[in-house]
User: Fold these one by one.
Assistant:
Number 1:
Amino acid sequence: YQICRGSLFGYINAVLNFNRLPRLLQALGRRWLRTLVSMYFDDLSLQDLQTAKGRGQRHIQALFRMLGFPLAPDKHTAMSGSCDFVGLVHDVRGWLAAGYIGLKVRKTTATKGYSLVHSALLNDLCSPGEASKIRGINQVLFQGQFGRVGCAAQSALVQRSYYDTTPCTISSSLR
């Protein structure tokens, strides 16, 4: 046995533990600074009004720096009306007039998802690893377009990813 003071990749609660810090930082940015910030693991997206002149971005950078988690300068992008974040393009340009933020799936993400599904159907094979990849991309595509409703149809992929054993041929429910 060995004592490990950290969260090792591969353990059941590793992802949950890893996400605690980003969730806390996101909550602090939203509640204390009143910024429209989203975090996914170690990626951050911030939408700010043009009239704020980048204050939200400066405040988030200062908060992270004060807490000991400075943001990498080489990943910094200039503020704009739309941004690409975790496979989705967030567009806030029409927010004040229309009252909503536009979300559009990145074309490369959709193409990658389509090619994985097409390859599995063509070969009539889908390993647990491939099912997990398809499910991960579908999560981005479905949630971006339909919210949590789109994720309901993925139970066959979950079954293949975690419970099915060989053979890896495509079942009727997976098809």
Number 2:
Amino acid sequence: MKFQYQEMSAASVDGMRLYATPDKNYYPSITTILGKTQPPEKVAALEGWINAIGHEEAQRQTEAAATNGTGVHLLIERYLKKEELIQGDEFSERMLQGFNSLKLKLNKITEVWGQEVPLFSNLLRVAGRCDCIGVYKGKPCIIDFKTSKRLKNKDEIDDYYLQLTAYSIMHNEMFGTDIVDGVILMTSGEGFPQEFCVNLLEYVDPLVKRVDQFYKQLEATL
């Protein structure tokens, strides 16, 4: 392994995912921070969707999407580790279809430095677990795998870019790397592969603003 990644424990506290760092700090996950600092228009859109289909159906669809995402992630993880994909587990046709759609993209990952890597930043006071870190198309990259019911465009996934940017800052701070590129590999709709490559330096300032917003909101509740 190129880097020695140290495991971190995590727990849910008051609706937040908190990680315990090796030096006994407790930092919220980047997904928690982004989730609690959503722009008002996104919050309104989510509430509108829930009201339109009902809370029970919204919950059912959310859980189904999470289950599908977990299955696709597991298949990708085994594939990159060159393990046997089916090990007695049951994967739905949708999971297999999503995974198969990304195979050609996954083959462009020529080095895998780590998968499901726990990271943190004392500078940002944030932590998280990154899907994959390695070399994609010849560049060191933060790599994230996503599933979606429909095709997405670049303007719809800003928070994904902020998530990757946070991981890059964490990794660079912890290991002295200089990772500035990110890639999102997404299986969308009925198994259509999408690839989004991004210069993460463009998202540092927006990320810092969201982190600052989170801590100001948190302090206001204490």
Number 3:
Amino acid sequence: MTDTETGAPLDEWTEHLEELRKRIIRVLVVFLLVVAAAFVCSERVAAFLMRPVAALGIQLYAFAPTERFMAHLHISAAMGIVVTLPYFLLQTGLFVWPALRGNEKRYALAALLADPILFLTGAGAVYQFFPPPIPLFLLAFGSG
């Protein structure tokens, strides 16, 4: 039996969709494991993220019983996204790789090499330069 529009066998489509499903499940499992591990370490991550704010002499308070817990859940989810993103991109690349032509594969490899360097450079710059002005802006904005 073939697809009426493309003439491709339906078995190829189902195999393709099955591979996509397996890759999505792998990424979700890794994401959930990273979120669970990040929740265990969320106190240390929160302390690391709070260093620039603490250097300004600003102290944060929790006004609701669940606020601190939710903050740790948000930190864990953000860590899960950041840490799982390279694995997600790898799985996406492995899924798409067989369909790429020779010149497209060269561009994809160049992007794979440049992406981690650019990401780490950007994350370091944001952590270094943005935290001091942001809390001051938010405090000034909130008091008005």
Number 4:
Amino acid sequence: EQFVIQKEELQQLRSQLKLQDQQAASTSAETSAEHESPQLLSDIDIYNTAELTNEQQYEPIVKFFQERQIQVEVNEQALDTTGFFDEIAVQLGDNYNTLRLVSDKIKYIQRKGYTTVKLTLNKKSQKDIKTITRFCKDLYDYSFVVKYFYQKQEKIVRLTLQTAPKIVNFFNGEWMEWFVFMKLLDFFQEKQLPVACLRNLSVKFQNEDQHELDVFFLINGTTPLCIECKTGEFRKDIEKYSVLQKRLKLDKGQFLICAVGLSDKQSQGLTSMYDLSFVNEKNFLQQIESIIAHTN
């Protein structure tokens, strides 16, 4: 009888130990998942931080692509906001209708191989002149241009351009990537949504095909968002992006072509025609709102 009693007690003890091991394993898995999940941006100064370059921040995106048999090459420098590219990009994007005069002229002069820009503002309103001269002054303060001079009586701005490749690339279209990236960071910070993010990343498929993606976010660890940023002609690339969207296995609303200067009517029409979502610098956050609404 004692033997039977001891045997039953031993079986109960083994069952308890097994249950404890299972609970411990479950807790460990949850802790690991929490560690790997996207982080909230609430404690980060998004306009002056190198924290986004931390591997732990973008690791969920790397795993997202690995599950699809896609390799990712990360450009950590494109995540560092301690410089002034982000501030100038947001200023330009928020006031594009007024400041495109400056950016277009700089871009044109750069392509011609010259370094001197002259902007005549005598037909502009006082409000626009103030916005333009403040922007040009910031370009000088942040070393985007070598010289800045405003002839107040004649209402003429004179700039001497930087020839550094990073500055040339910025005005050649990279500013739009920075603008969209920073506006999204600000948006998700305000919404207190956990995200992982990458900018200017490269993806390689199993057949060695390689593509660059401008901006990629992973919302709540589950919802992908890919945005291609265009400051010039984009229509010739529509088919290429349609194929890429399918290869990445993204829904239509998760792959955005953000074209600066595109009208709302054009955005709606192109979105109806193709398996991509077309937006502009003013309405792209509305599309993000829609994506979040559908995932909640």
